[in-house]
Amino acid sequence: MSGAGKTTALKMLEDAGFYCVDNLPIPLVGKFGELTQGSGEIHNAALGIDVRSGEELSQLEDTFREWEAGKFPFEILFLDASDAILIKRYKESRRSHPLAGRDRLDRGIARERTKLAFLKKRADYILDTSKLLTRELKGELDRIFLNREGYSNLFVTILSFGFKYGIPSDADLVFDVRFLPNPYYNEDLRGHTGNEPCVQEFVKQGGTAQIFLEKLHEMIDFLLPYYVQEGKNQLVIAIGCTGGKHRSVTIANLLYGCYAPRRDIGLKIEHRDIENDRRVKQE
Fold first, then answer.
1. All structural domains of the chain
2. Environment class of 185 (CB within 10 Å of its CB; exposed 0-12, middle 13-18, buried 19+)
3. SS3 at position 97
4. How far apart are CA 248 and CA 174, in angstroms?
5. Strands, E, within the chain: which ranges?
6. How far apart are CA 81 and CA 1, in angstroms?
7. Is 109 helix (H, G, I), strand (E, B) or coil?
8. Can you tell me whether residue 73 is helix, strand or coil?
9. Residue 57 CA from chain centroid, whole number
């Protein structure tokens, strides 16, 4: 999708040793494949293709069939992002969408999704860049194309938050941990956060946090394959306490630790409200 990070991804692949070409005319894609296959110098190549190819896009199907028949090895990475993020990126860059013309931006994006649907359906990997920082995108590309780790197209964000600042609008699963021991009422711990061992030990006292974590881990393990099966690309697991500073941060960190060793999913952790109390005091 235009605005999903294709140019950035190509630069990263180029830095990793790939021979990269952007926006090659579709009739030349097959020829390009032949040239790379016959070259002793090019071992990995990446082609950037987007909706600017126009009506010629449909010709890619013929090229793919020829490559498959000739056992020419290729993979498709589809970069996607939510409509809201794409609109935001276009407004920030002040560029016009190739299919919007004088129409509204969201309608151009809708047309683009229709035209690229066959590519997304064929894709070996789908990366939703809506929430990815540049370094996180690089990490995912390295995992897929350099380290050749198993990949399920699912990117999981574990997000801590404070209920008093509102439930995250993009959360898929929300868990309330306000039943756990609250370090806020301990004057020695109030100024610390769930990133620190002293707070984590306080929250874990009594064993309830560990039992909850084990049950939560078990449930998410059960759910993940079904999300993958349904074609979900982004999953936001939100852990909330009152202020988003102690209990939710602790549990989010522990849950992240459970999934960090897994190489078949993308993973990141965010603490949305961990600094909010400090900001409020400064104001």
1. 6-146 (3.40.50.300), 155-282 (no CATH)
2. exposed
3. coil
4. 11
5. 19-22, 45-48, 77-80, 125-128, 155-162, 173-176, 234-241, 266-271
6. 7
7. helix
8. coil
9. 26
Q: Read off the pLDDT of residues 225-283 as tens digits, 9 standing for 90 and up.
A: 999 888 788 899 999 999 999 999 999 999 999 999 887 888 899 999 998 876 555 44
Q: Which residue has the tokens 């909010």?
A: 276
Cα→Cα distances 9→81, 139, 268, Å: 14, 11, 19
Other CB atoms within 10 Å distance of the CB of residue 132: 23
**CA-based nearest residue to 248, from 170, 187, 180:** 180
Picking from 108, 107, 105, 129, the residue whose alpha carbon sits closest to that of residue 234 is 129
Cα–Cα dist 220/173, whole Å = 10
**Please, are residues 160 and 249 in contact by the beta-carbon 8 Å criterion?**
yes
Written as six digits, the tokens of 24 are: 């090659």
- pLDDT tens, 126-173? 999 988 888 889 988 988 888 776 667 788 999 999 999 999 988 999
Per-residue tokens: 48:
């950037």
pLDDT at 206: 95
pTM listed for this prediction: 0.67
